[in-house]
């Protein structure tokens, strides 16, 4: 073992107390995050809601459908908001888009594709709760218009599960398809979007045609953008498909339950009414 003695201080060497201590290194400045989403201006939100409701009433000719769709829209989007806040993406807020619908806007991206799947399915699943007041209205008044409102709410949530951009189904099944190959996701989304676009055109839903056409053009321009978070695991992929199927079955069940009293309590008649309304048995 060796030992080194410290050198002795000379007469011209500075005294220790005269040496200023070295400044501590400055802490690295934190990168400023994106500004928080302040939400939609209340006046513009009300105006957008009125414009959207007026358009629905003009196209459908029914105040029942207009009120049901607006009510269902807010409950649907609030389901996304609840999921975003629960998964650390909040505080999320609802934006009403004039003539087009609504969107839930969070503050942060999902940490993983699994969180993105949960957020996308939370809208249609929670949105079915919007049908409860309409069923209650039918029980109290026995007026069939209330059942029409419940059926419309179920239909909108079911259509939202179509795996076509920008609908919720594309965000729920997209990551699962991307595990196979990114090109599979791209082709499946575009093919489904074209199919839904054709269905909307053939059934006279011109507003839906315009909406989906704009969405598909934007989707093809920017391509598929995967979330920056962790991709789905095999287990999460299986759960994603299972949750998607359960949510779709629930939407269909609520719609059939609303149509059965209109068909005299007959399940086949209710299914036939639904098929006619969807333009599947013309």
Structure commentary:
The chain is mainly alpha-helical and 282 residues long. 61% of the residues lie in helices and 4% in strands. The chain contains ten helices and two strands. A two-stranded antiparallel ribbon has the order 1-2. A hairpin with a 3-residue loop joins strand 1 and strand 2. Helix 5 runs antiparallel to helix 9 and helix 6 runs antiparallel to helix 7. The longest helix has 26 residues. It is globular, with a radius of gyration of 28 Å. 33% of the residues are buried. The N terminus is likely disordered.
Bin the strand percentage. under 5%
Q: Please summarize the sheet with the most strands.
A: 2 strands, antiparallel
The 3D shape can be described as globular
Question: Approximately how much helix is present in the residues?
Answer: 55-70%
Average predicted confidence as pLDDT: 80
Q: Given the helix and strand composition, which structural class is it?
A: mainly alpha
Query: How many individual β-strands?
Result: 2
The first-to-last residue Cα distance is 98 Å
Number of helices: 10
SSE diagram, text form:
Elements: H1 42-60, H2 63-86, E1 93-97, E2 101-105, H3 113-127, H4 132-141, H5 144-159, H6 168-180, H7 182-202, H8 206-222, H9 234-259, H10 267-277
Antiparallel strand pairs: 1-2
Summed up:
The protein is built from ten helices and two strands. It is mainly alpha-helical and 282 residues long.
